Amino acid sequence: MRFIALFLVLFTPFSYADELKLHVLRSPLGINWSTPWKLAVSTLKNQVAPVGNRRAYSISHVFVAVKCDSTGKHILRGMTSATNTEERDLLLNKKYGLGVMFHTYKGKLEKDEEILQDLAPYTGSKRRSELTFKVSPEACERMIDYAQEYEDLGYGNMYSGLQADPLKREGAGCSAFAVSFMKVAGLMDDFTQKWKKIIDVPKRLIGGPMTGRRVKLTYLLTRTAARWNSYEPHVHLEAWDPEAMHSWIKKTYFQVLNNKYNSPWPVKISREINTFKVELDMSNREVPTGKFWIN
Which residue range(s) make up the domain with 162? Predict the structure, then answer.
C-alpha cells in the first residue's frame, strides 16, 4: 500500500496547466549568515569562486516563470542590479560596511530570452533547483497583470535592499521579487517562516546614510566576535533567503521520496541530474482580488 500511495503522489498528473515556477540558483560556496563576520567572509569567497564562463550568481538568485496555458501567456522575470560596480564602490570607497544590504541600487528587470540563456549552463546543476506551483487561471492572470504593472510603474529600475517590500512600492531584490508573485497569487502563507532570515544588525557595522558612519571592509573582516543582537543599537532585518528556498526544495524532495512529507497540497517530484524539482498543486487556493499594492 505504501508503494501504491507513493506512486500516486509522484506520478498522478495535475489537471491544471497554469503555473508559477521559481528557478533558484544557490551561490557557488554557500552564504553563511550565522555571524556578521562569517557573512562578510563567505560573501567575499563567493565573489571570487571560479564558475567558468557562466554567470556566477555569487549571492544566489531567483527567477520567476509564469505560464498561463489558459490564455497562452508566458513570462520569465527577475530582478538584479544594473551594474556590478555600484556595490563595490559603496563597500570599498564610500565605506558602507553592512549598509550595502540596505541600499537601493539602480535596477534591471530581467526578461525571457536573457534569463533562458543565463539558466542554460546550469541545467542539471546541484546549484539549481525548481519549485512549481500549479495555480488557477485566475491566479495566473493576476500574476501576469502584476508583472506588467510593476514594469509600467518603473519599479524594475530599483534593485532594493534586503528589507524592501516590492508590494510597498519599494523596489525589490531577486528573492523579494519572487515572493511578491506568490503573495499576489495567494500562495505565500505556508512558506513565510521557512524562507526568511531574521537578524538584528548592529549599527556599528552599518555605514552610509542610515547611520552617518564610515565602516571599512577591513573593520568588518576583523570583527570576528561580532554577533547579530538586539542588545546594542541595531537595525532589524527580515529578508527572504534564496539559499533557504534551495535547501527547502531539496529537503522536500527527499521527504516525498521517502513518504515522509505531510502537506495539504498534492505533490510531485522529479530530478534532472543534480537539480531537484518539486511541484505543488495549489490550484484550489483562494485568489486575492483588488489592488496589488499595500500602500
Answer: 2-29+55-196+241-281
